[in-house]
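Handout, section 4.2: multi-component inputs.
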Amino acid sequence: QQQVKQSPQSLIVQKGGISIINCAYENTAFDYFPWYQQFPGKGPALLIAIRPDVSEKKEGRFTISFNKSAKQFSLHIMDSQPGDSATYFCAATGSARQLTFGSGTQLTVLP
Amino acid sequence: GAGVSQSPSNKVTEKGKDVELRCDPISGHTALYWYRQRLGQGLEFLIYFQGNSAPDKSGLPSDRFSAERTGESVSTLTIQRTQQEDSAVYLCASSQRTFSNQPQHFGDGTRLSIL
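Output:
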């Protein structure tokens, strides 16, 4: 009930391409869905977040798409750059306050 | 401070020893969270504080783990009689409040290695 399932586990994209990472959840009480970016040796950094009353949110090259009925959300990175190479985590939270994280996607953007 | 600060950044200790990990949250943040990240895995929740109180300790893996927070600021996570499975990165995060849409800001963690 508390799980957030993330795919793919790893992703290789050419520079300038679109990176897409998908997540699915089961707990309908979740009401906040952030994405975090983590570089080796660093803590996760908040990238972008969405509430379930919105179907899409865009910030620069990063877009979250949210499908409430399917209980799925995804991160799209447009014009991917080598500097975007990192591990990306989706997460969800609700009344329980703590974040429930997906298992992570290791993104490699080739120059 | 400017961000969440954790110390030490690295800790190597022998099995059976006790360890204390420290977290300094962002000034003014009333909510503080501890997570554990095993190698190559996602983060798992351990405990959170609202002020100095810990309403949810459900994520603590065993009674060897404890945490406290004082002055609505610094928090320490203590692991007693460490075991090799305790090896992980321990991450602390803080947020202004414990409302679900309050972003959690993470420190860089303490990498704990149990020999």
